[in-house]
From TrEMBL:
GO terms for biological process: L-amino acid transport. Residues 45-276 form the ABC transporter domain. It comes from the Bacteria. GO terms for molecular function: ATP binding; ATP hydrolysis activity; branched-chain amino acid transmembrane transporter activity. This is Branched-chain amino acid transport system ATP-binding protein.
Length: 276
């Protein structure tokens, strides 16, 4: 497989952010070749040689990656590359056939799904799942039942982060726009103050303006609160504009891991795997 290319970064400003607000620091460590490599410092998340299958079909094949505190790691690739399966396997929804998952140094590979939240992981799956008949406030409170004791200050914090859903807090979820539903499910995931947030296709079906708002908020949480985000995105251009590190998957394997700016500036790799 190809090694991480060293092209000059594109230099474009982040989506929805001014040039001075992208918040990305220099990438730590050297580029990783084909999903392997040795991490120089422990990440919030360490995925080592992870494989998973659906019957005879191998969806992940020895995936290795890491997500560091206070950084956004974007997982990119075409449909069928294994991106969603990767998040589902990390969070325990799919059991791996090989490899392991470390969260803050603890092996959580076989931990039950419900234990992941108390260990510091929140997963926002694709699809913006809400209970349509309940209000915004009720959806948040139902979500909090699975997150241990959540104080009123945490609900207030979510409403401060998403003023739009605060305005709609008494509205039933079926009346919300797609963007408002996405804000609701992300807010619900943030109630437990996770150390690691897994986000699957948050931009899917949303207007560019809403995508920019959501990505800008993620960047702010990462920069100000030290949140670690593992972001799966089909919209590679937008994801790389806000991420610190990019990981490209193809047919269940890591093709390359590198600084997001360098990946965005590598025309050959973009055309081969990312479609822009």
């Amino acid at each position: 497989m190809a090694e991480a290319h060293g092209s000059t970064a594109a230099g474009a400003a982040g989506v929805g952010l001014s040039k001075g607000d992208t918040g990305r620091g220099a990438a730590t460590g050297s580029s990783v070749i084909a999903g392997g490599g040795t991490a120089t410092a422990q990440g919030v998340l360490e995925v080592e040689g992870l494989s998973a299958s659906y019957g005879p079909v191998k969806a992940l094949d020895g995936v290795t990656l890491r997500a560091e505190q206070g950084r956004i790691t974007a997982v990119l690739g075409a449909n069928g590359a294994g991106k969603t399966t990767l998040l589902r396997t990390i969070s325990g929804l799919v059991r791996p056939t090989a490899g392991r998952v470390l969260l803050n140094g603890e092996d959580v590979t076989r931990s039950p799904v419900e234990a992941m939240v108390t260990k510091g992981m929140s997963h926002v799956p694709e699809g913006r799942g809400v209970i349509a008949e309940l209000t915004v406030d009720e959806n948040l409170r139902v979500g909090s039942l699975f997150r241990g004791k959540v104080g009123q200050d945490e609900f207030d914090r979510v409403y401060d982060l998403f003023p739009r859903i605060k305005e709609r807090r008494t509205s039933t979820a079926h009346t919300l726009s797609g963007g408002e539903r996405q804000m609701l499910v992300i807010g619900r995931a943030l109630l437990a103050r996770p150390k690691l947030l897994l986000l699957d296709e948050p931009s899917l079906g949303l207007a560019p303006r809403i995508v920019a708002q959501i990505f800008a908020l993620l960047r702010r949480l990462v920069d100000t609160e030290g949140l670690s985000v593992l972001l799966v995105e089909q919209n590679a251009r937008s994801a790389l504009s806000v991420a610190d590190t990019g990981v490209v998957l193809n047919l269940g394997r890591v093709v390359v891991t590198d600084d997001a700016h360098r990946l965005a500036g590598d025309e050959d790799l973009r055309h081969a795997y990312l479609g822009f």
